[in-house]
Model the fold of this input.
Amino acid sequence: MDREFVFRNEDFERIRKLIRDRVGISLTDKKRDLVYSRIARRLRALHLTEFSDYLDYLEQHEDETQDFINALTTNLTAFFRESHHFDYLAEAMQAQQAGTKRPFNIWSSACSTGEEAYSLAMTAIEAFACWDPPVRILATDVDTRVLEHAQSGIYDMERLAKLPDERVHRFFYKGRGARSGSARIRPEVQQLIRFRPFNLLMPKWPIKGRFDAIFCRNVMIYFDKATQYSILSRFHPLLSEQGLLYAGHSESFQHAADLFRSQGQTIFYPVRTNPSLRSNG
Ligand SMILES: C[S@@+](CC[C@H](N)C(=O)[O-])C[C@H]1O[C@@H](n2cnc3c(N)ncnc32)[C@H](O)[C@@H]1O
Done:
């Protein structure tokens, strides 16, 4: 195939190793063309003609690392994706709040462009029927470009197409004039969320507190089993007594049965050495 840039097998192998080491993403051989097209944009931006030159540049310029990572992440997401999780969570929030005064803490740990975190906030507002529900959401992602989008709270109207009209009217301001075609999330929804850059592969996690729900959906599929296990072992102590881990539709953690067990619908509870802890809540 005629390509715009020189892309050798060893370049692909170098990229494969770099992205795995930095963020855990394992690229199979089938991803060769995808890698080419995503990294080609960086070569264009830097006026380079060979992938090997780009990789040398990357090694010498730490500030290129983030663009390299941003180029290789896959950010597909949607509002209320896998909607059964939000139905379940609405009940879990209400049940927990009946017995405590502290806020219900949620972590959306690979939040992409923010639809997951905003869906969590909308769920909370609906569940408590007020704009200031006792719910706090931390939303993180390794890709700084998608986080900027998330923080802006602005979405093309097509992204809202599957939301019922009632939710659109209640939670978004539709753009007018030059901004028609997009909508902005209401500040009351936004104020429930803190967006932060965070790499799940980081050796030290500057995450404090306990979570009643950790959403880690559709990102573990990009990691090998050993990486998944290491991340799961770090989620485990961060969950409150009744806290649950919500995973993506094709993710199962049988290889980590000592840490998490499925309770159905890709929702997982942490295994405790003292099982009575769960009922003491
Ligand atoms: C397919 S999206 C999933 C978004 C959302 N959780 C959902 O299910 O709709 C995967 C996200 O994981 C992020 N990601 C990949 N590796 C990561 C890492 N090591 N740490 C944090 N986020 C990561 C990507 O940037 C991307 O936004």
